[in-house]
Amino acid sequence: MKAASLVCLMLATLPRGQAESQSTAKTGNPEAVRVIRVIDGDTIVVSQSGKSVRVRLIGVDCPEAGGRGKPVEWFAKESTAYVRSLLDDRSVYLEFDQTGNKIDRYGRTLAHVYRVPDRLWINREIISRDYGFALTRYPFAYLDEFRQAERAAREAGRGLWETGKGAELKESHQPKSRKRNRPRPVRKWPGTRAEMAGDPCGIVPPV
Length: 207
Hints:
30% of the residues lie in helices and 21% in strands. By secondary structure, it is an alpha+beta fold.
């Protein structure tokens, strides 16, 4: 496990070209994890240290395949099928981004995924092959590169971008903007000593 962490750190600090050409044989014996399930285009499950770990691919957003009360979106089946063709019953290396969190709010591990042994960068491949969007509202190391990959895919007009539905779907995935001139609610933390003392300024009386 220590060796795998060292490899991820080295890759994250190298320029993109160097990282792609870096041989895994030169870095010792990094840990490869087995893909046991592809949930949808941007989420997989791997077996790591005898446990099932859900992995959310950094920087890519694919049509929803359903679940958690969400409907199956347009092009979700094609996107999921493509990722399965790349990763079903394969092993991968995980690279953790140094600019963000390692775990998301759903408890999924956030990572860049590289297929063994050819080190195909799955996150970027999904975008380049027109099966997903670049998810750029959260910072990560290769954000500009992913934007460029999406721009090239859109200009090619294939797959997800073959009709106007792709642009509409991406727009629907964007966070809703706040309405203008609407007062921003004040965040309150109930149960504080200031609140209990009835002080509207939130000043806590001395004890």
